[in-house]
Amino acid sequence: MDEVRYTLVLVSLTLLYVSYHLFHRMRNDELREIRGPASPSWIFGNMLQLTLTPTYGEYEFEWLKKYGAVYRFKGCFGEDRLMISDPAALHTLLSREQFALGPGMGNGGRLIYNAGCTWLTDSEKDHQRLRTALNEGFTVAAVRSYIPIFERVAQTV
Prior knowledge:
The chain has 157 residues and is mainly alpha-helical. The protein has a domain at 101-157. It is 59% helix and 6% strand. The chain has 8 helices and 2 strands; from the N terminus they run ααααββαααα. It has helices at residues 2-26, 29-32, 47-51, 58-67, 87-94, 103-113, 124-135, 140-156, and strands spanning 70-74, 80-84.
């Protein structure tokens, strides 16, 4: 009976090992070709280095010099992540129609910015609401009342 258990455990572990490597080989082949720092831990990846540093940006700036403006690092549980610090590359990625913010990011932005100018979506309703609120400050009477303020600031500067 013990031999059957050992055989079953051995076969199960072998299948797990093979399936893990097949799955791992199939996903994120593009990211694997991008250079990046080695991960000190499979569980935490490079996340401890990024979040618990005594000096902000200590590792990021070092990796930026070593690997360039786009590099790969490891997230928790072996997840591949991409760090992009090139403004042109970021603009290209974020302006594509395929790129969409996840629900968590959208809710977080609305919570922080209260759906203001910095977090305006493509919704016509949002645009109309914001335009109505801002129009009051740009009427002829309002702009004329700003002239003394601008003159005083210009004199100070």
